[in-house]
Amino acid sequence: TDDLFALLYILKQDRSQFDVKAITISANAWIDAGHGVDQLYDILYMMGRDDIAVGVGGDGGISEAGEIHPDVGGYLPLIDQGMSTVGGCRYRQAIPPGRRGGRLDTDTNGGLRRGFLPQGPRGYAPLRQPTGQQVMVDTVSAGPTTLLLFGTHTNAALLLMAHPHLRRNVERVYVLGGGVRVTGNLFTAYGANPFAEFNVFGDPFAAYQVLHSGVPVTLVPLDATNTIPVTEEYFAEFGRRWQTTPEARYCFQSLDQVLRRHRRPAPGLHGSTGYYMWDSFAAGVAFSSMRNGDANGANDFAELEYMNITVITSNKPYGVHDGSNPFFDGRATPKFGLKVGGVHSGHVQTGIRDSFCLVPGSNAGRCQDGYTKEVTGSEGVRVHVATSAKPNTVYNSAFDREFSKNFLEVLNLAKQAGRFNISTQFPYYREVLYKPDFINVSRGKPVIFDMDMSPGDFVSLIYLLKAPREVIDVKGVLVNGNGWANIASIDIVYDILHMMGRDDIPVGLGNTTAMGNPTLGCNNVYAIPLGSGGFIDSDTLYGLARLLPRSPRRYTPESTDDPEHRQPLAFEVWQSVRRQLCPGDKITLLTSGPLTNLANISLSDRDASSVIERIYVVGGLIKDGGHEKGNVFTVPSNRYAEFNMFLDPLAAKTVLESNLNITLIPLPAQRKAASFESVLEALEQTQQTPESKFVRQLFALLKELQSKEKLYHHVDIFLGEVL
C-alpha cells in the first residue's frame, strides 16, 4: 500500500524538475505481477499519465554458466534464476500469500482498488506487455537517469550486470530498504533472521550487486523510517482536512483499510498505529536530495550521513558446500565468476525455517542474509544513509515530522491532480446486485463448484450457470489459492457471477497452500510458471478479465471495526449451503483444481458424507497399460503426475480414500475433449450471447498463443477441464 502512496506523491512533483519516464514492478515481492500491473495502469490513467512506460516480468533466463539472457523477468531471486520462470520461494515465502496483510490484500489493495480506481485503455496482454528489462534498458539508454528502488533489487541488478556500459547513465540510485543500526522487520522469519529488511531480503545478491556497482547510492533504511510513524492524530487530521483530490482520497481510504486490519491499541492520540511512512518518506528524501544536491546539499526531510555498508548474501563459515548455495554447490567454477571462499560462498538461507539459522532456546535466529551491515575497509561501499526523519519546525502541530505535512500538501495540490475515480469516470454507473427470482421455480440438484481459477474453470463456471435451474442449482463457489491463479483472482469469479446475473451465489476463499504444509511456502505450486502461460496470465485471465463487468461484490478483508463484513471462507460457504438444504436434499460437488477445499471439508465436518451425493473430480492419470504420461511439464522427473493431484497430493489421498461417492475425469478423458478447433467451430454455429462471445474470445486467444509461442504449448489442458 505504501508503494501506492509513494507513486502518487512522485506523480504530483513538478514535471519541469522531475520527469517520470518509466515504472517497473518487482515480481518477486509483495504484489503478484498480473494484479500489480493492471492496478498500476489504472493509477496512471487516473493521474493522466498514460505516457509512462510500465514494465513487468519477462521469460528470459540465466544459463548455468551465468549468461544473462534478454528479458529475465525478475520473478525469482538471482540465486535461483534458471532458464525459465518456474522456481521456489526461498526468500518470498517470508511474505504471507493470503489475507491478513499478505499478498491477497496487496493485490486487491484491501478490496479498495476495484471500488475506486477508474479503468483505462491499457492493460496486461500476453506477449505484448513490455518486460521489466526492456523498459529499464530503453529508459536508461536514452540518457542520464535516476533510479528509485522501492522493492527488491532484482530488476536493477539485472540491468547493471547485463549492461555494464549503462552504469554511466545512472546518476544515482535511491533505495528504500535495509536496516543498519536497528533490527530487521521480517516478522514472519525473525526466528531465523533478525537482521534483514523485506526489500533487501527478497534478493540479497541483487542488492549487493546494486550497492557494489559503482553507482552512487542513497539508502533510506529502517533506521530512518522507524522515526516517522503514522500516529492516530495524523490519521485523524488526514481524514478531517486533506482529501481534496482523487489521489488524496485514495491514499486516505487505502490507509484507513490497512489500519482497520492492523491498528494496535495505543494510548492517546499520539499513539502509533503500527504503520510507518516507508516508501512515501523515501520518495520525499529522494526528491529533496535531488533539489538540493545529494552530495553536499541539506535534505528537507531527513538527517543523512555517510557510512561504509555492504549487503550480507551468505553466512559464515565461507567456502562450505552444504547444498544451500547454487552459486557454488556442485560447480567446478562458481557462477558469475564469484570468488571461491569469498563473501558469497557461505550457507545461504533456504527459507524461513532453515535449521541452520535457528538457535535452540532463542527467539532470534543467526542468519544474516539481506543484512545491510556497517563494515570497515574495502568490504563495504560508501553510501549516503538517512538516519532519522526531521521533526516539524512548527510547535504543537498535528504533524510531528516535516515530511508528514509535505506529503499531504503535495497530494492535495490542484496542479497535476487526478482526473476522476470510477464513479466520476462513469457517472451513471451504479453498484447494483443482480439476483434471480426463484419464486415458483423448481430448483434442481444443489451443486457446489470448487475451482482453482484456471481459464478452463471460468468457462466451466459459465457452463454450469447456463444449465437449466430445475436441473442444476449452483449454491456456492469455492476457490483454491494453491492452483493456477493467485487467490486475489477471486474478484474475477465475482465478475463472472455478476455478468450472469447470479450475485446471489456465495464465493468461499480457500487455503493458499497445500494440505499439511505451512501457511508460508510454495510446496508443489512451484511447478506452475510465474510468467507466460502461468500466474501472470491466469491472474488477468490472459488479459481478458478487464472486459468483464465490474461486480459490486469483491474481496473484502477482515476489519477490527466491522468483523462481520468480510470475505467468507470456503468452509463457511459449505456450512451455509448445508444449513439451507431442504429435507432429503444432498449436495453434488464439482472440483476442477487441487482437492484442498474438499479434504478440509471432509476433515472439519465429520458428517459431511451424509449430505454429499457425489463428487466429480477433474484430475489424475489412470494408466491402462498404454503410454499415457502426466501433464506436469515443468517437473520432467515426474512423468505420471497430473497437475490437480500434484498440487496437493495429501488432499487427493484424503478425498479418494474417503467413503464418498466419486466420479473421476482423468487426464486421458480430458485429452479427448481438448480440441480448440472443434470447440471454436461449435461456438461459431450457435446463437451469440455475451458469455459465448467471451468464451470464444478466450479460446481463440489460447489457440493463437499455443500456435505462436512454445511457452503456451500446454494451454489446451484448460480446455480439457471443461469436460
Automatic annotation (TrEMBL):
Cross-referenced Gene3D superfamilies: Ribonucleoside hydrolase-like (3.90.245.10)
PANTHER family associated with the record: INOSINE-URIDINE PREFERRING NUCLEOSIDE HYDROLASE FAMILY PROTEIN (PTHR46692), OS05G0406100 PROTEIN (PTHR46692:SF5)
One annotated GO molecular function: hydrolase activity, hydrolyzing N-glycosyl compounds
Name recorded for this polypeptide: Inosine/uridine-preferring nucleoside hydrolase domain-containing protein
Classification via InterPro entries: Inosine/uridine_hydrolase_dom (IPR001910), Ribo_hydro-like (IPR036452)
UniProt-listed Pfam families: IU_nuc_hydro
Domain Inosine/uridine-preferring nucleoside hydrolase: 2-314, 447-709
Entry similarity comment: Belongs to the IUNH family.
